[in-house]
Amino acid sequence: MSGLPVGRRSRYENPGTAWSADEVAILSDAVLHAPSVQNTRPWSLTLQERTAVLSELAEVPLPEQDLEGRDRRISCGAALENLVLAVRSLGWAADVDVRVAGGAVTATVIGARRAVVTQVENRRFRAISDRRSHRPAFGSRAVSEDIRDSVRSAATSPGVVGRWISGHIEALAMGWMLDYAARVLQADYQRALSMWCQAAPRGAAEQQVDFGLDKDAFTATGLGAIGLVTSHPHVPDACQLAAQIECESVLVISTRADEPYDHVRAGEAVEDAWLEATSRGLVASIMTQPLHLAEVRTRLEDLLDGMAVPQALMRFGYPDPHRRH
Ligand SMILES: Cc1cc2nc3c(=O)[nH]c(=O)nc-3n(C[C@H](O)[C@H](O)[C@H](O)COP(=O)(O)O)c2cc1C
C-alpha cells in the first residue's frame, strides 16, 4: 500500500490462515450495518487471509454541500469501528493501520492474534444490528447523568472529544447556528430540522444574539426565509431550536486536528457513542450539514473550549412510547 502512514496504531504479525466463512459473514454484516451519509456506504471491504481492508470509494459522488468529502470519511470511520468490533467479537486482537493517499482513506485491520473480547466491546458489537437513525422528537423520559457520561466517554479518545451542549446560553447559540446553516444550506437540511422540532415547545426566550455569523449569507430575514414563503417545509426558528436542544441530549464530536485522518477518527467516535447509547436503550440521530460551513465550525469551536474542530452533532433520547416507529 502506498501513501502516508498517518494512523499506524500497532504492529501486526504475519497473517496466518484465512477468515472462515462464518467470520467473513460476520465481518461483512457488521460493516453493512454502519451509518453512512445519505446511506451511500462509500467504502469497499476486501477480506483476504487474516486481513480486512476497508477502502473509501472515491467514485461515490460528494453532495454539493460537502465537496471536501468530510461525510464520506466520517462514514468510513463508522464502518471501520463496526469492523474492529466484529473482529474483536470473534476473539481476535484487531491491529489497525489507517492511511490516506491522494485524499482517500484505506484502513487495514489484521486479526491474527487471539485476544479475549471485553464486555464493553461485546455489548457494543451486539448493538450494531439494532442501531438505526431516529429522526423524530424523543419521548419525555430524561437521560440520566450516568448514561450521558458513558455515551460521552464512548465518543472520547486521544485526539477526539465528546462534549454535551449544556445550559441555556449554549443551547441558544447552537439554535442560532442551526438556523443560520438552514438558511444557507436550504431544502434537505431544513426538512431534517423541521422533523427534529415537530414537538418543540413554543414561546422560548426571544433574545436576539449576534454570534458574528455572516448575515449576507441569508436569503432573506425572518421566519419567511426558512419556510413560510418558500416551497420548503416550515422550519422552527432559532429560539424553538434552542428550546428543543435544551430538553434533549445533544453531543458535539470534535477532533483536535482537521485532516482526513481526523474525520475517520470522528466517524469511529460517532459509531462508538451511537452503539453505547443503543445498548442502553437510547435512540439517536446524527447531523453534519451545518458543520460543512467553515464559519459554523469556527463559532461552535469558540463556544465550546476553542481547542477542537466540531465534526458531528448527535442527539440522543428515549423513543416516544406513544409514537409508532
Ligand atoms: C457522516 C454522516 C452524516 C449524516 N448526516 C445526516 C443528516 O444530516 N441528517 C440525517 O437525517 N441523517 C444523517 N445521517 C444518517 C444517515 O442518513 C443514515 O445513517 C443512513 O441513511 C442509514 O440509516 P441508519 O442510520 O438508520 O442505518 C448521516 C450519517 C453519517 C455517517
Automatic annotation (TrEMBL):
Coiled coil: none annotated. InterPro entries: Nitroreductase (IPR029479), Nitroreductase-like (IPR000415), Nitroreductase/BluB (IPR050627). Residues 128-318 form the Nitroreductase domain. GO terms for molecular function: oxidoreductase activity. This is Nitroreductase domain-containing protein. The lineage of its organism: Bacteria, Bacillati, Actinomycetota, Actinomycetes, Pseudonocardiales.
